């Protein structure tokens, strides 16, 4: 199905984000396509019942974003994923799976194969109609990832190249608000932003916040820095639901070569251990006579997220002050920006991932723009800097 849009009023208006929906459930395909079609910045260019049909249609439909179910007959999502990316490099694929351990494991596997992000699916049936959080997250991710895909292809500046015969040319989005949603930002420049000085105190704890693109970034980062973290604890908040965070902890632990698990309330924080905020709870810390201990909070979401980065950064700053080294990695929204300011104001250090290596430059961009970062670095540069700081090197 294709959602019709009006013709562009101006050649400078941004093109619609083209979306393909792939799911073996006709009900899910229909409702997801309807939700996406209601957004004026999006255009559903195709829906398919299995991965084979999606792969075969990539050249014709030219989607910017593919919503890809993982459990399908004939060709499942995990098999189709690399073929989709081969057919149309630069396409942003969001994999969708159930909230089960198997669903989490397959989703994280898909991320290692090139998927940009994942979506945990609500229960099929009537519950889908009331899945407001799923709908909000779906549209937000498609808009952000689609904008990234278009920027990478130079669409917003130069216009999309002519589509193959028989494929309608993408239409522009009417309205300044919609256009602004996918207009490319200028590249981040450290010289154009206020940067904070690094702390001169030894690093006592590493705190990491991430969201969209985070699992891939965390795996790469901790593969590099893991051997250098034996003398400090590590706390991670990644925007993920329950079950997914447990699997993420296992992946990060293997990458780092260190013990890693979801945080549990009352656990004394130990050097050389990695603690991941469990899905559905905020992870905080508290300084006690026994040492710094983890505290889990069932408080309302912060920045629409639970777990959220801001509460973790704020609590860690109170416990470790100038000894905090905080990283804000790729992710949508602004979570981490306010907490990063708390860390910096207390004398700690904050490093953010740069736009080029981020899947979405929301969280790190907001932190840098607020003037709460010490440095803006590509992911590989963050790894080298963390190693130098942890080992007592020059700032």
From TrEMBL:
- Give start and end of each Response regulatory domain: 18-136
**Keywords for this protein:** Chemotaxis, Cytoplasm, Hydrolase, Phosphoprotein
As for subcellular location, the record says:
Cytoplasm
| Pfam families, per database record | CheB_methylest (PF01339), Response_reg (PF00072)
- Ranges of residues in domain CheB-type methylesterase: 197-393
Enumerate the active-site residues: 211, 239, 335
What the entry lists under SMART domains is as follows: REC (SM00448)
> In its keyword annotation, does this UniProt entry include Isomerase?
no
InterPro entries documented for this protein? CheB-like, CheB_C, CheY-like_superfamily, Sig_transdc_resp-reg_Me-estase, Sig_transdc_resp-reg_receiver
State which Enzyme Commission number(s) the record gives: 3.1.1.61, 3.5.1.44
Q: Which residues carry this modification: 4-aspartylphosphate?
A: 69
Q: What PANTHER family does the database record attribute to this sequence?
A: PROTEIN-GLUTAMATE METHYLESTERASE/PROTEIN-GLUTAMINE GLUTAMINASE, PROTEIN-GLUTAMATE METHYLESTERASE_PROTEIN-GLUTAMINE GLUTAMINASE 1
Role summary: Involved in chemotaxis. Part of a chemotaxis signal transduction system that modulates chemotaxis in response to various stimuli. Catalyzes the demethylation of specific methylglutamate residues introduced into the chemoreceptors (methyl-accepting chemotaxis proteins or MCP) by CheR. Also mediates the irreversible deamidation of specific glutamine residues to glutamic acid.
Q: Which family does it belong to?
A: Belongs to the CheB family.
| UniProt name for this protein | Protein-glutamate methylesterase/protein-glutamine glutaminase
Q: Which organism is it from?
A: Xanthobacter agilis
* Gene this protein is translated from: cheB
